[in-house]
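Problem 3 from the worked examples.
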Amino acid sequence: QVQVVESGGGLVQAGGSLRLSCAVSGSTRSINNMGWYRQAPGKQREFVAYINYGGTTKYTDSVKGRFTISRDNAGKSGYLQMNSLKSEDTAVYYCNIDLWGSLSSYWGQGTQVTVSS
């Protein structure tokens, strides 16, 4: 049973930083693609950042220059470094991954990020 677990969320003042982690267990396969998404209260879930196996990254415009997505060499974890946080970054952040050789994608349960102004 594949499990995806996010961690690292919390309460931070505007201008501060947080580092989110996404860990995969329950499979011998490595992460192929990884994405971070977020959902603010009363809003739809939105794309934040993406990294593929080759290391190519994409970001939504509102986080460019502030957030950095990365992954470990073992292919079992990924990260979202968030700097210069703003109140509008407040949301539940979700990790989505797919594994090499698998057609399925998996979501974590989310981690809350709250930025106080």
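Problem 4, a separate protein:
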Amino acid sequence: QVQLVESGGGLVQAGGSLRLSCTVSGSTASLNAMGWYRQPPGKQRAVVASMWSGGSPSYADSVKGRFTISRDNAKNTVYLQMNSLEPEDTAIYYCYYRTLRSTYWGQGTQVTVSS
């Protein structure tokens, strides 16, 4: 079994920064992707950023230049540094861990950006 624990959400003013963390434990695989989705109020969940083990990061167009995803493979942890936050970034952020067989999800963390 695989478990994901997220942290780092909160309330921030527009233009501010937050860093999300997600640590994976359990039966992990050497080839995996880790990343983040988000779900704004009343909207569908959509990818924000992702990164395969040993690969390059990819980002949604809406966050390019503002968000940075990084991984610490030794700690099985993925981070999302969010800068220049905008009210449109308000959402529940979910981390995920994907192997060739399955995808696992964190519990979600709320990010609220006030104008």
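Solution to problem 4. The mean pLDDT is 95. The first strand starts at residue 2 and ends at 7.
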